[in-house]
């Protein structure tokens, strides 16, 4: 993988996140987990290039994110939708997602985990986190749609600094 500067990005990140999806990965070389996500975004905050992601506390990856300072957001390309389907529907508590998907882990100098199959990876350092609060919704239809009885807990939002951009 080749390191590039964030201002060299030409990807349409709206399309990449919403349609291609991404893997959110956290942990250590010894033990990590990855999950599919398509809620998030990128921007510039506190004079830093940032991404923001949303993770439900019941997800297995949540504990890995909580316990580590770094995480990665990896974009595999549309041709890897099957990987995303497995990583988005199965729990790392119950199976080895790397083995099941054929992903090949790569480890950064900071100890973050990405995958050889990634066309683009953001290595990120956590800056801020907060649980989504139902009382803060202005449009109450969102809580009914995404947090009704069958949908689970409210997400935790993470704002992360993009410290490295890797192109596969």
Automatic annotation (TrEMBL):
InterPro entries: Flavin_Rdtase-like_dom, Flavoredoxin, Split_barrel_FMN-bd
GO molecular function: FMN binding; oxidoreductase activity, acting on the CH-NH group of donors, NAD or NADP as acceptor
Location of the Flavin reductase like domain: 18-127
One Pfam short name: Flavin_Reduct
Family: Belongs to the flavoredoxin family.
PANTHER family: FLAVOREDOXIN-RELATED-RELATED (PTHR43567), HYPOTHETICAL CYTOSOLIC PROTEIN (PTHR43567:SF5)
Name of the protein in its database record: Flavin reductase family protein
Organism: Phocaeicola sartorii
């Amino acid at each position: 993988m080749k390191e590039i500067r964030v201002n060299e990005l030409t990807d349409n990140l709206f399309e990449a996140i919403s349609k291609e999806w991404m893997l959110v990965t956290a942990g250590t070389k010894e033990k990590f987990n990855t999950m599919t996500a398509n809620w998030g975004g990128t921007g510039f905050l506190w004079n830093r290039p940032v991404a923001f992601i949303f993770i439900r506390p019941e997800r297995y990856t949540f504990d890995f994110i909580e316990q580590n300072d770094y995480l990665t957001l990896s974009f595999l390309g549309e041709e890897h939708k099957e990987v995303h389907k497995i990583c988005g529907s199965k729990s790392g508590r119950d199976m080895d997602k790397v083995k099941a998907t054929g992903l090949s882990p790569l480890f950064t100098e900071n100890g973050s985990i990405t995958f050889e199959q990634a066309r683009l990876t953001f290595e990120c350092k956590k800056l801020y986190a907060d649980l989504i609060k139902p009382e803060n919704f202005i449009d109450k239809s969102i809580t009914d749609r995404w947090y009704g009885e069958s949908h689970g807990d409210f997400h935790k939002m993470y704002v992360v600094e993009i410290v490295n951009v890797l192109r596969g």
